């Protein structure tokens, strides 16, 4: 199979692709490519973690290729154990599992498929070999489930949209519940007021929500 050279461009708007897609930031894209180039002629490998269930890559984690080979990669078993413990502690999961090919196209080999044990992850391959005379590297993403390879489009964005809930969490402090709101007036209590004292309506309701001491 001849490689399809794919150089993703920055897209600020919604995806134009109806099918499966990997969306990642330009910064993460560049970090993956830089790692592949730095480790050439050996294959580079690593993951990008994200919040469990989010399908959003956020934390770049370059790994050591224990094989130190230009044709094969493997994670060090102790590094991998430490990594998964860290992911569990942070409630994260591997969103991207990436590695490079240094002399062939960016397409999963039989060995790559055999070792693909994260069915929910995007498998990114970067080829640092110009196999089709179309550019200095190829950046492609695949889903590998039960031995079946499905290529997906890649969307590179400047930044992820900020969810409204994330904004609210940051505004009130991580892990702290939102303060109660008075059903009568919609106001929140402050540290300096006793709740019902400054309200002229809904006294009984306010006293139930913010009891005076």
TL;DR?
With about 210 residues, the chain is an alpha/beta fold.
Strand order of the largest sheet: 1-7-6-5-4-2-3
Order of helices and strands: EHEEHEHEEEHH
Q: Residue share in helices? A: 10-25%
Mean pLDDT: 78
Relative strand content: 15-25%
User: Per the principal axes of the C-alpha atoms, what is the gross shape?
Assistant: globular
Number of strands: 7
Contiguous helical run count: 5
> Main beta sheet: strand number and arrangement?
7 strands, mixed
* Unreliable parts: 1-19, 191-213
* Span of the ends, CA to CA: 77 Å
**Class inferred from helices and paired strands:** alpha/beta
Radius of gyration: 24 Å
Which key features would you list for this structure?
213 residues; alpha/beta; 7-stranded mixed sheet; 5 helices; disordered C terminus
Describe this structure in words.
The chain has 213 residues and is of the alpha/beta class. It contains five helices and seven strands, in the order βαββαβαβββαα. The chain has helices at 26-39, 77-89, 110-114, 164-172, 203-209, and strands at 21-25, 45-51, 59-63, 92-101, 122-127, 138-145, 148-157. The protein has a seven-stranded mixed sheet with strand order 1-7-6-5-4-2-3. A hairpin with a 7-residue loop joins strand 2 and strand 3. The radius of gyration is 24 Å and the shape is globular.
């Amino acid at each position: 199979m001849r490689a399809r050279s794919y150089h993703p461009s920055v897209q600020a708007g919604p995806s134009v692709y109806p099918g499966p897609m990997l969306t990642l930031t330009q910064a993460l894209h560049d970090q993956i490519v830089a790692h592949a180039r730095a480790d050439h002629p050996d294959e580079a490998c690593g993951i990008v973690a994200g919040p469990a269930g989010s399908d959003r890559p956020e934390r770049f984690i370059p790994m050591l290729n224990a094989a130190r080979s230009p044709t094969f990669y493997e994670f060090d078993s102790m590094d991998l154990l430490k990594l998964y413990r860290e992911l569990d502690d942070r409630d994260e999961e591997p969103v991207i599992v990436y590695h490079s090919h240094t002399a062939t196209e960016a397409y999963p080999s039989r060995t790559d498929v055999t070792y693909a044990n994260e069915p929910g992850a995007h498998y990114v391959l970067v080829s640092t070999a110009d196999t089709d005379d179309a550019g200095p590297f190829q950046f492609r993403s695949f889903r590998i489930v039960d031995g079946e390879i499905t290529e997906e489009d890649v969307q590179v964005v400047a930044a992820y949209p900020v969810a409204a809930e994330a904004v609210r969490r940051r505004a009130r402090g991580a892990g702290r519940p939102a303060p109660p709101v008075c059903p009568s007036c919609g106001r929140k209590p402050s540290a300096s007021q006793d709740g019902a004292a400054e309200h002229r309506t809904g006294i009984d309701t306010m006293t139930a929500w913010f009891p005076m001491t």
